[in-house]
Amino acid sequence: MKNQDTQSTSTRGTGTSGTPYSIDATAENNYWRDAYSKEPYYNKQYDFDDYSPAYKLGYEGRGRYLGRTYNEVENDLSNDWDKFKGKSRLMWNDAKSAVRAGWHRVERALPGDADNDGR
Q1: What pLDDT shows up at residue 67?
Q2: Where are the domains of the chain?
Q3: What is the DSSP secondary-structure string of 42-94?
Q4: pTM for the full model?
Q5: DSSP-derived 3-state class of residue 12
Q6: What is the pLDDT of residues 44-95, one digit of tens each?
Q7: Would you say 55 and 101 are in contact if contact means Cβ atoms under 8 Å apart?
Q8: Structural contact between residues 98 and 55, judged by C-beta atoms closer than 8 angstroms
Q9: How far apart, in whole angstroms, are the C-alpha atoms of residue 10 and residue 45?
Q10: Strand partners, 10
Q11: Among 21, 32, 83, 40, CA closest to 56
């Protein structure tokens, strides 16, 4: 499988502190391409093209659900997964750890604990 998402895009938003931020989707994609197989939830029966939409849902979801914690929106993200996953073979139970990782990686780049969940 080849990942077709190579265009540079960014997502912009405002953190709960009022600080504007943007997400470089190309940089996030490149990071996860290198890191995904080292994650504790990684399953070798899946490749990056399976995990990539989950990371994207996480880092884009962080901007889409501003002011809410991951735990508050996990059910919404679960519902989004079926529309968002494309050709990924991951079911939600396999994808949710990658979604959470994508969410929290972006959050860690923001000043402070942007969603106040201690991560």
Answers
A1: 85
A2: 26-109
A3: --TTS-HHHHHHHHHHHHHHHHHTTTS-HHHHHHHHHHHHHHH-TT----HHH
A4: 0.78
A5: strand
A6: 999 999 999 999 999 999 988 988 999 999 999 999 999 999 999 999 999 9
A7: yes
A8: yes
A9: 30
A10: 24
A11: 32
